[in-house]
Amino acid sequence: MKEVDLFFGPQHPGITGNFSVRVKIDGDTVVKAQAIPGFLHRGFEKLMEMRHWMQGPPLICRICVPDADHSETGYSMAVERLAGIEVPERGKYIRALTLEMSRLSAYLFYFAGYGGSIGLYTIAQWAIGDRDYLLDLYEELTGARVYHIFNFPGGPRWDTPEGFEDRVDKVMDYLEKRLKEYDKLYFNNMVFLKRSQDVAVMKKSYAEKMEVTGPNARATGWAIDVRKDDPYAAYPDLDFELITQDEGDSYARVMQRRLEFQQSIDLVRQITKKLRSMPRGNVRLIPNALHWKIPRGEAYAAVESSKGELGYYVVSDGGISPYRMQVRGPSISHGVQVYEEMIVGQRLADVAALMFSLDVCPPDIDR
Prior knowledge:
Blueprint: E1 3-8, E2 20-26, E3 29-36, H1 44-48, H2 57-60, H3 68-83, H4 89-117, H5 121-142, E4 151-152, E5 155-156, H6 164-187, H7 190-196, H8 204-209, H9 214-218, H10 226-229, H11 250-277, E6 297-304, E7 309-316, E8 324-328, H12 331-342, H13 350-358, H14 362-366
Antiparallel strand pairs: 1-2, 2-3, 4-5, 6-7, 7-8
Helix pairs in contact: 3-4, 4-5, 4-11, 4-13, 5-6, 6-11, 11-13
């Protein structure tokens, strides 16, 4: 058959966000793919160099909208290392709480997106609806539902409201119960199994070569996680083991996140239990925001976002703004280099499903 060029995106519903992929197909088989980014938020790193140190979080939370808290925290940690600031213990636990809630929220978004890409629209409706309960908690804690702008250099903006930990635990109980229904509807569904097992298999050696991180790497059996390899916030005190799988296919990537979803619920419960036993009030150490000068130097800080390792390299010349900023996001590797190679030989129907299985965040590429 004649080879045909098809465009997925930037408005196509089967692609993640304002992103575009040009595929060449022979019959029903993809023979070539080209990722075409550049349709979304751009220039964040340069914009950061034009703003004071404390004006960074409102910008960088847009680098990955569904998982904004990890960007805020990664940047804040790099600045704290430059300034020699140690966040109070309670502030570390609140920071970890927002990060695990963000992971849960992002995974629900992921379940919805992958489900929709293979025609299971009920799970998409369920997951997006259940995510709203987490957004309700964020709204109570930060005053915002999507861009929280809550984690700053020096610690979170303020303490948790009275009784907040109890309300968080109620949502965790609901999500844990809901997960059993997800298993029946989605994870044990024959459509999901047929469309994901043995599809786009990624070997551990390939993941290492292509610098794949996060759940995509752990789904190949590669046990890497910044929370364990370079602990931050409250993670050194939390009890959890890395979850890995060996298959490396789309099924393993989805199930990796399903298992980590349960793990994040357990981590949130550990955090809320600890917060109840700690004295309230001391959560941040922040100087005068408009006149704060950071000593000369450079620092790199990484966090384990829902997509993988998210790192911030910051250089200071001793002034009131970053001299240089560079973000190390996981989506350039996953959404461009890996995707362009792995989609070759797959069926046309898997173009969107593979993109969602890799959990790509387009603004992380366009930044």
